[in-house]
Design a protein that fits this description.
CATH class of the largest domain: Alpha Beta
Number of domains: 2
Shape: elongated
Oligomer: single chain
CATH topology of the largest domain: Nucleotidyltransferase, domain 5
Distance between the termini: 26 Å
Amino acid sequence: MTGYVGLDFGTTNSTLAVASEDGTVRSISFPGGDVFRSVLHFLCLEDDDLEAAVRARGHRASIAGGSAAVQRYVDHLGEGRLIQSVKSFLASRTFTETRICGELYTLVDLVAALLACMLDEARRVVGSLGKRVAVGRPVHFAGSAQPARTPEGQADDRAEARLRQALRRVGFEEVEFVYEPVAAAYHYAQELGRPSTAMIADFGGGTSDFTVLRIAPRAAATVLATDGVDIAGDRFDARLVRALIVPALGSDGRTLGPEADAVVRAVNAAYLRRTAEGLGVRFDEKLLDFLARQLIPNLDTLADAARRLANLVDRAARGDDARSTLRLLEQRQEGQPPIYDVAFGPRGRDAAHIGIGKVLATGAPSSTLAPRPSSVADILAWLQANAPELAREVDLKASPVPRWIFGKLAAWHELSMLRDSNASEVIRSIQARSDAPLAGSLEALRRLIEEERGFDLYQAVSGTKERLSSVDEAEFVFDCPPTTIRARVTRADFERWIAPELGEIDACAARVLEAAGLAADAIDVVFMTGGTSMVPAVRRLFERRFGSDRVRFGGEFISVARGLALYARHQAGSHEPRPPA
């Protein structure tokens, strides 16, 4: 079947439609429905399969796309590499390639692989798709914050060029790009009985796009204005991740990191000195410095060390004040590591001394050295009461868990690539300096990254968002070993979290009206499309501005692809000026 092909390549879902000469449009069905999940799964080949692939100079991984990718990921218990929201990388200057199963894949490779999986499924249903395609694109791609006329807007050109290259790889020699809301207008024009001034509001996973135009049944659309923002469903998901996931994985934790070594020693020395005084003994400066360098900043550990050392004086006490000071003795022999003793009693050759390691390793049976530092909050609380100046220094030098890790955690396309970074190494180093609760949270974060649990997180988050579109309250649950994150979320909570994004969407709708030179009451009908249009707070924005009687819904996932197919048919037989694309 070769007709007029329309392709809506989406961040979350992609769709395909074919229009015939008589104007009939067929949406292509895929396993699982009318949409093709924009997801790839790579499973590394092994043994004979790998050897055969190497000999044939093929890929070292088998590649699945769409619902088949999701199912295979589940069947293999998360083994392999799952990549989603790849469209969000198209405008990026920084992402160029990733390594999968020992093989480098460029961004164009990934997009072409996803398109190939989709088109293979489509051809099984309808046969040949020909060499020409009309492809939807957002007004501004995700990640390109400035209009195309500015230098920053070169990102839009970069994104379009990459997508065009991928489309050519999968067999489309003639590619025409059309703004997604313009394409949707061709679909919705079929519902009109008279010429109308309309706004098309297209809400996808990565962008929200608006077009004001005049449309009429079976006629070309006249575009009056277009605009868009890189805010849509994925950004809403990010708000849920930041509110529910990020705090549970250690985002608010702080450590006394390597850059604060001097502060750690000062904290230890201050605590040991004060504790020793309370026990009626003194440590000389060399002993204090040694202990401050050797011990972790744990208040229980430090108190225990001071108590054990003080017990030496108690056992040997003869009423001589000279015995109240404990000193560090260092013995060095050539070619041997130094031996450190703690000395007590009168100075001189007859001073009693014992190996410091033995003192710290033994003591009261009930005393055990704590394995981790105290929390920064506990250290600060003690210092504020006993050493306020040092407390201020600690507060300044305490290191938060790096924000960039949590930033990538809240972006589905970035999360897919997080294992390529040094995030796991960074997390392990922070764990070593963390108190037990923070170390447990960071362990869950590290395993989420290393075990590539991003899709499981996506399902938990997007499922909660979808439920909140129909109910006022939903339970969020995400199993993230060694913990389970569980919370009750109300629709009011969610709408409060996404309020900044809602404001930007509303402002963009106002801008496009101003650019068209029209007031809201001049719009006859508003067609809302895309999955994010089903979020109640988004719908209310447009119902308030235009009136609920003029806002229409329907065909949220297929309208763009069907409109693209109609656009391609119209352009093939029309000499009228085409709308901008």
